[in-house]
Specification:
mainly beta; single chain; four-stranded antiparallel β-sheet; 0% helix
Length: 171
Amino acid sequence: VAIVDLADGSVRRITGPFRRSAADGGVSLAWSSDGSRLAGTDSDDETGPARARVRIIDVAADRTLRTLEGGVYSLIGLPTGELILMRDSGERGAGARHLGLRLDFDLAEKARYLGGGWWMSRDARYLLQADPSQAKARFTLIDLRSGTSHSFAVDGPATPQWLSDARLAIY
């Protein structure tokens, strides 16, 4: 990981212990809201997510602060400075969902979700959850303030993107 100072162009490398868990996989990263900590996936070998872990590092000291062992598929950084850790839900077969754990950077669990992917609105009010168990592209929109949710489906490819005015575009 390279950090570039935009004022002078200097580059600082963070060695961090972030290694992929599969030969055809990559490393997932998520930043804390103040930029002082970085969460990343790490594995001792490339045998798959069963042995993958999450490491939280102190960026300034370039040292590990916390580790959560095992079963990590990937991380998703959220605008709140939290992250969603994706892991096996135990479901099997076509349309099996992942377990999404919303965590803070102390690795304290804030919420659990079952789905295929998550995107948070920029204002942190909504969480969009993909549901892979449907023939159409199906989503659940969760209002994090009220706790209510609404499901909807769209035809064709479905890549969601939050717009700056809090609308959601799916293309």
